């Protein structure tokens, strides 16, 4: 009986570790930053504001963005909400004065951002964000998208197919 439990535990731990390693490099970078405090003007792990967070994450992959959400909203190419993919920037009007918040789309209606509560993942469908969504922009061309935003399982399936 105890051998079965140990074996089952081992199988579960192995399966979890394989699943955890399937994250894309972009997701892995973002996961390291979850929970870091909000800091107005912050653009490093000592604290982030929203555009400092997106700037920092993309800089880890050699992609430069300005430290200003509205400035970031001019980068890349426009993409329709229904066509968003991981790595796209999503913009919101949280101030009533135009674009004032930015995050990184992760897929499945989830995005990572630095809010007043710190770096977190939120749903695009949350009432607050759904009502304030303005637009999204594609920053990653196909080359970078395939290297940093696709998870391991997707890459394996793509190469096999």
Structure, described:
The structure is a single chain. This protein is of the alpha+beta class and 161 residues long. The chain has a single domain, classed as endopeptidase domain like (from Nostoc punctiforme) (endopeptidase fold (from Nostoc punctiforme), Alpha-Beta Complex), CATH 3.90.1720.10. The chain is 40% helix and 22% strand. It has 7 helices and 8 strands; from the N terminus they run ααββααβββββαβαα. The strands form 2 sheets. A 6-stranded antiparallel β-sheet has the order 3-8-4-5-6-7. A hairpin with a 2-residue loop joins strand 5 and strand 6. The termini are far apart. The N terminus is likely disordered. It comes from Marinicrinis sediminis.
Largest sheet: 6 strands, antiparallel
Number of helices: 7
CATH topology type: endopeptidase fold (from Nostoc punctiforme)
Q: Assign the structural class, choosing from mainly alpha, mainly beta, alpha/beta, alpha+beta, or little secondary structure.
A: alpha+beta
Roughly how many Å is the radius of gyration?
18 Å
* Record field, number of beta strands: 8
Distance between the termini: 42 Å
How many domains in all?
1
């Amino acid at each position: 009986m105890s051998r079965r439990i140990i074996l089952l535990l081992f199988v579960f731990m192995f399966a979890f570790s394989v699943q955890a390693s399937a994250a894309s490099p972009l997701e892995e970078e973002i996961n390291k930053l979850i929970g870091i405090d909000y800091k107005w003007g912050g653009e490093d792990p000592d604290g982030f504001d929203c555009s400092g967070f997106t700037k920092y994450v993309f800089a880890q992959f050699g992609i430069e963005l300005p430290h200003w959400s509205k400035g970031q909203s001019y980068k890349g190419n426009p993409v329709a909400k229904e066509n968003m993919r991981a790595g796209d920037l999503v913009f919101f009007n949280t101030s009533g004065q135009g674009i004032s918040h930015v995050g990184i789309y992760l897929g499945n209606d989830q995005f990572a951002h630095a809010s007043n509560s710190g770096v977190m993942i939120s749903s695009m469908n949350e009432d607050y964000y759904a009502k304030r969504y303005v637009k999204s922009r594609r920053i990653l061309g196909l080359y970078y998208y395939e290297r940093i935003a696709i998870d391991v399982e997707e890459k394996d399936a793509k190469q096999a197919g």
